[in-house]
Every structure is written in C-alpha cells, then in structure tokens.
Design brief:
2,3-Dihydroxybiphenyl 1,2-Dioxygenase, domain 1; 139 residues; 2 domains; four-stranded mixed sheet; 16% helix; alpha+beta; 10 strands; globular
Length: 139
C-alpha cells in the first residue's frame, strides 16, 4: 500500500515569461490563476487545473536557467532524451480529438499527435511554454 502521509501538491516550472506562461494555461486549458505573488525576487504564479497546482515562477536573481530540450519522437515512443522530469499528464473527460482540434486552432503544437496508447486509449503531447510537455489522455 502507498504511504497515506503523502499527497501530491504541485508541479513547479521556471519561466522567463511567467505571466505569459500562466495565461497560456488559462487560455488553452481553462485553468484559473489562484494567486499572483513575488517570492525571493521573482514572480510566482499559482495556476490551478484539474485539482492540481502548477506553480510558475520567474528567474530569480543570480539564476541562469537553461532551456529545456524539446520532446522528440522515436520509433514507437517520445522522449526529451534527458534525465529528470520528462512530462506531466492530464486525463481529459470528453472528446479528446475535438479538444485537440480546438487547441490547434489556437496555435498549439503537438510534438506527438493524437494516437492510441499502449492501453488502447487516445493520447497526445502538447508543447506548452518553457519547454514543458504535457500528455493529454482520454479518460
């Protein structure tokens, strides 16, 4: 059994343009901005989506973050080909193909187009700001 003392809290993203990034999640996914603060000299924005918090913060004094590697397609899988977090995912309740069409009309790119996953459900990967990859899976 999993340890009940733990509950997932947030994903933390460092962004060169934190307000633009936060607004992307609002415009593309219907997220809400729960708080817009400053911490240790940088903007820190709390974005809520699907019961999860995406914390987007700006560059802090003295930091020099490097860009994330883009996700790429291999023979039968996709990867950033680097250690660390590869992507995070959301289950989508609804017609994922229709939702993806709407995202595409807004200019969103899909490094991995809609396809059947290993379990037979539809999935795709969305290129989010700051080199972030998000997997969308039809529930």
């Amino acid at each position: 059994m999993s340890n009940p003392a733990f509950k997932f809290d947030h994903v933390h993203i460092i962004s060169k343009t934190p307000h633009e990034s936060a607004n992307w999640y609002v415009e593309m996914f219907g997220a809400t901005i729960a708080a817009d603060t400053v911490a240790r000299g940088a903007p820190q924005i709390f974005v809520e989506l699907g019961g999860m918090t995406i914390l987007i913060r700006g560059q802090r004094p003295g930091e020099a973050p490097v860009a994330a590697r883009p996700i790429r397609q291999y023979a039968d899988f996709s990867s950033h080909d680097a250690c660390g977090t590869d992507h995070f995912g959301f289950l989508y309740e609804g017609d994922l193909a229709t939702f993806c069409d709407a995202l595409r009309e807004k200019g969103v790119s899909f490094p991995v187009e809609l396809k059947k996953g290993v379990g037979g459900n539809w999935l795709c990967y969305v290129a989010a700001p700051d080199g972030v990859s998000i997997e969308l899976m039809q529930s």
